[in-house]
């Protein structure tokens, strides 16, 4: 069972939290270096809230130039102690052992570093923030050990927050003029055979995400689970 399941145990069946639609930003929507998408029609900075039994999921589109600052301010509101979470696709050599046929699912490796107060988390994040933000393959987040409180940046840099304290996060989104909508249109909604997307690894300051994980393993990062994608 993952840390997210232990901490939050969020069912899949969320209901839409009804809101009025705000105005879109006018500066367009930008992607990070490691993400390539051919169709950004209708993709804007915006967020929506879904609720299930007093647990809320906030889905957020954040333009590339704002990812670092928005992530910092959201994570500053996570109740500590907490854990750093990193995710990437399982190594191809391991996949060959796990998958018996081409129809078998791919896998994700999930890493954790536990017991972090905010200062310790940000000390780690500051070392690798440019790589985390701009790499297309890594997903990352900061979650609470003590309650339902997690900020997660997933594939294609789509933000998801799991919480039962929405207002503290909404305050941050308002600061950045990110409007609330009924349902977020994400990059996933635009994918088709004619308009695909892709993600790739990059290097920042001479290291990639795999070297980053190796470095962090010396500070307590460990492989917590390997799950189906």
From TrEMBL:
Source organism: Ruminiclostridium herbifermentans
Name of the protein in its database record: Uncharacterized protein
């Amino acid at each position: 069972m993952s840390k997210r399941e232990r901490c939050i145990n969020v069912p899949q069946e969320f209901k839409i939290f009804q809101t009025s639609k705000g105005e879109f930003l006018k500066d367009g929507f930008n992607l990070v270096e490691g993400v390539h998408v051919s169709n950004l029609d209708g993709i804007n900075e915006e967020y929506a809230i879904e609720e299930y039994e007093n647990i809320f999921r906030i889905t957020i589109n954040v333009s590339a130039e704002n990812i670092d600052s928005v992530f910092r301010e959201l994570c500053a509101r996570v109740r500590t102690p907490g854990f750093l979470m990193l995710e990437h696709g399982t190594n191809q050599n391991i996949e060959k052992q796990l998958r018996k046929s081409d129809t078998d699912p791919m896998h994700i490796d999930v890493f954790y570093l536990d017991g972090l107060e905010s200062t310790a988390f940000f000390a780690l994040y500051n070392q690798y923030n440019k790589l985390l933000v701009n790499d297309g393959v890594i997903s990352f987040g900061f979650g609470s050990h003590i309650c339902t409180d997690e900020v997660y940046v997933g594939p294609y840099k789509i933000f998801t927050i799991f919480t039962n304290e929405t207002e503290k996060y909404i305050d941050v989104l308002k600061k950045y003029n990110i409007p609330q909508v009924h349902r977020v249109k994400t990059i996933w909604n635009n994918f088709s055979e004619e308009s695909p997307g892709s993600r790739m690894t990059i290097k920042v300051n001479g290291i990639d995400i795999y070297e980053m994980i190796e470095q962090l393993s010396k500070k307590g990062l460990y492989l917590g689970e390997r799950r189906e994608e």
